[in-house]
């Protein structure tokens, strides 16, 4: 399953205003180093992203940073594994930035830091948990998943119907909707294909 490691909000200088991390997949003794690396990665990515620009930055085929710096200088970063869908990641960044800017006006950004922001912005931690599932962020992914499940159910239903050949034969013979030519085609196709069945 795809994984979100970090969600952060920063100003365009790279100063992190709020951040949450999920490092449960790492060894307990590695977590401090990983969190330090994520902070460095977020700061560097934001510093090198111009206002109004989005970037997807891959790090050693392990992490992917999805960065967006808005025109007002507020930046959002989500760090995921390589399997996480890009569209979902940027959808999350947009939502986080909208939520953050509506809660904290630009005049408050200068006095913020991740250590104190967690107490006044617990929603970021909730978002980190919620968006471990990319379908929660992207309604189109959710619709696609539902369609795929429906297709599997329909496929299974057709297979089970086709496995009962004698019932299908009876249905074809009794159908008023099929012309005699269609019924003849069905019989010919069935006899042609029967030579190859095991």
TrEMBL record:
- Which superkingdom? Eukaryota
Q: List the subcellular locations.
A: Endomembrane system
Q: Which GO terms describe its cellular component?
A: autophagosome membrane; cis-Golgi network membrane; endoplasmic reticulum membrane; endosome; fungal-type vacuole membrane; SNARE complex
| Stretches assigned to the V-SNARE coiled-coil homology domain | 139-198
Q: Output the Pfam families linked to this UniProt entry.
A: Longin, Synaptobrevin
Keyword set, alphabetical order: Coiled coil, Lipoprotein, Membrane, Methylation, Palmitate, Prenylation
**GO BP annotations listed:** autophagosome-lysosome fusion; endoplasmic reticulum to Golgi vesicle-mediated transport; intra-Golgi vesicle-mediated transport; intracellular protein transport; vacuole fusion, non-autophagic
- What molecular function does GO assign, one term? palmitoyltransferase activity
Question: Which residue ranges does the record assign to the Longin domain?
Answer: 6-128
How does the UniProt record describe the way this protein sits in the membrane?
Answer: Lipid-anchor
**Stated family:** Belongs to the synaptobrevin family.
Entry protein name: Snare-like protein
């Amino acid at each position: 399953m795809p994984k979100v490691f970090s969600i952060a909000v920063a100003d365009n200088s790279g100063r992190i205003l709020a951040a949450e991390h999920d490092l449960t997949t790492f060894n307990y003794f590695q977590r401090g180093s990983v969190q330090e690396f994520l902070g460095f990665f977020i700061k560097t990515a934001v510093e090198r992203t111009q206002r109004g620009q989005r970037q997807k930055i891959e790090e050693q085929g392990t992490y992917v940073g999805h960065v967006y710096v808005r025109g007002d200088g507020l930046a959002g970063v989500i760090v995921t594994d390589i399997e996480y869908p890009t569209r979902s990641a940027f959808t999350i960044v947009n939502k986080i930035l909208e939520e953050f800017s509506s809660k904290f006006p630009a005049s408050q950004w200068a006095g913020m830091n991740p250590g104190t922001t967690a107490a006044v912005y617990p929603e970021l931690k909730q978002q980190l948990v919620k968006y471990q599932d990319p379908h929660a962020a992207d309604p189109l992914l959710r619709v696609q998943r539902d369609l795929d499940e429906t297709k599997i159910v329909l496929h299974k239903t057709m297979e089970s119907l086709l496995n009962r050949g004698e019932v299908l034969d009876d249905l074809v013979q009794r159908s008023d909707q099929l012309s005699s030519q269609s019924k003849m085609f069905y019989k010919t196709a069935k006899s042609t294909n029967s030579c190859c069945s095991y």
